[in-house]
Predict the structure.
Amino acid sequence: MAGAAVVRQLTAVGLTNLLLKSRAELDLMNQASVNQFFAEHHPEVVVFAAAKVGGIHANNSFPAEFLHQNLVMASNAVHAAWQHGTKRFLFLGSTCIYPRLAPQPISESSLLTSPLEPTNEAYAIAKIAGLKLCQFYRRQYGVLFYSVMPTNLYGPGDNYHPHNSHVLPALIRRFHEAKESNADAITIWGSGTPLREFLHVDDLAAGILHLLQLPDPPDLVNIGSGEEISIRSVAELIAEIVGFRGRIMNDLSMPDGTPRKLSDISLIKSTGWSPKISLSDGLSAAYQDFLSSLKHERLRSV
């Protein structure tokens, strides 16, 4: 999702010399394949959006895979980029790298100040390692390797797997299916009280293009909407957009995750970027994309 949005953004501004490889064409887990790619193409700029991602259920169920795969992919790519002369490497992480109880809104300085959220600790550790690789290669070798930490993303190309997706695509799918089946009620995980921040993936892509043009970007910078909403409220908003009129119930046996996670975006705003797409408009567009993908049998669900 994030990579496709970046490609749309770069194409929109007229860039045509993009090196695009699918997972089948380039296995980032394979060090030899990654080295061969960089040795053959010598990319000047790399936007590293690859990751194994998922929601609370997936992170809780497969922590070994989340840590191992994300760690290996980042290590292979960062080292090969340095070896073969990449001038600029932008690593995409996640605001889940920050401590569970970090002061709100969460600034970049909160990194490694206290324990992580247990439900996504494995993924967070891998992303912390990736951003630290970029930071230390920059410090030691003078290369322009740096990182951006997006908040919760949504938009075209999202993963709508019924169990392993993130909260917004999961809710869009469940409310749509409940409407189609004329269900009286739908149950959401947890208490609904945790507060979350969401950023449309096209806003992320615009922010990445902005960061690629900065002559001296920060080692680490947050990117988000700067606004938060409870899980219950966002469920009600999605129900309204989808047209579901039944009751919304809570399954208190399921985990809530971090109670609050709002990123401090003052640093990136100080460089001249700010988000443009409201949550309501973004969710409406995301639902239309879901319907179109469903109709044409190209709904991502892995």
Q: What stands out?
A: The chain has a mean pLDDT of 95. Residues 2-160+195-228+261-277 form a domain with the Rossmann fold fold (CATH 3.40.50.720). The radius of gyration is 19 Å. The first strand starts at residue 45 and ends at 48.
